[in-house]
Amino acid sequence: MNHEQMASKLNEFNTKNIQSMIALTEKSIERSHKLSEISFEATKSILNEVNDSVANVMSAKDPQAVFAMTQDGSLDQYAGKLFAFQQAFSDVVREASEELAQMTEVGMEQMKVSLKDSMDALAANAPAGSDSIVSAMKTSLESTLQGVSQIQAAAKEVASNVEQTTEQAVKAFKGQVATAKKTVAAKTTRSAGRK
């Protein structure tokens, strides 16, 4: 392989990297836009409902009426909306990390193939007597590629852990809402019993 062919291969490799970066940037912008839409709609909806609920609480004549409002299922309604928001948000983040992982993996595989091809071409055109240097370079390349594979595996594990942690947080929040609902119900029952 002559210098022009090596330069052409390097140029092809750089072009693929630039295309991958552009695709990643476009995906990031798309996901950010989607997350913004989800956040805006959820916030708008919840604020409208909270505003209505506050108006109802302010118009209540006595504490018993306020407690009755807590029993009408509005707490469940808000919790349901928050859970739906969290789920939609998590889905977008999960899709984005899966796409990113897939694109990164494809890019890394392309890089590995390109580096191995370049090393093979270099070895084929190496001057006589440079076998030990070529062998050392190949060993170094293999070690580097093994390190890249380990980094890829670690990145997948991190993404999996983030997803599991998010799911655990949602479950904990659901548990807190259920506990709050039971507490309100118990207080309402005690207050009604005193009258």
Annotation keywords:
92% helix; 4 helices; mainly alpha; 0% strand
Structural write-up:
- With 195 residues, the chain is mainly alpha-helical.
- Helix content is 92%, strand content 0%.
- It contains four helices and no strands.
- The chain has helices at 3-58, 63-70, 74-124, 131-194.
- The longest helix is centred in the C-terminal third of the chain and has 64 residues, at 131-194.
- The radius of gyration is 29 Å and the shape is elongated.
Distance between the termini: 95 Å
H/E series, N to C? HHHH
Low-confidence runs of at least 5 consecutive residues: none
Summing up helix and strand content along with how strands pair, one would put the structural category as mainly alpha
Average pLDDT score = 76
Characterize the largest beta sheet: strand count, sense, and whether it forms a barrel: none
Q: Please compute the radius of gyration using only Cα atoms.
A: 29 Å
Strand coverage percent: under 5%
Got a strand count? 0
Helix share of residues? over 70%
* Total of helices: 4
Shape: elongated
Give a concise summary.
With 195 residues, this protein is an all-alpha fold. It has four helices and no strands.
List the helices and strands and how they pair.
Blueprint lengths: L2 H56 L4 H8 L3 H51 L6 H64 L1
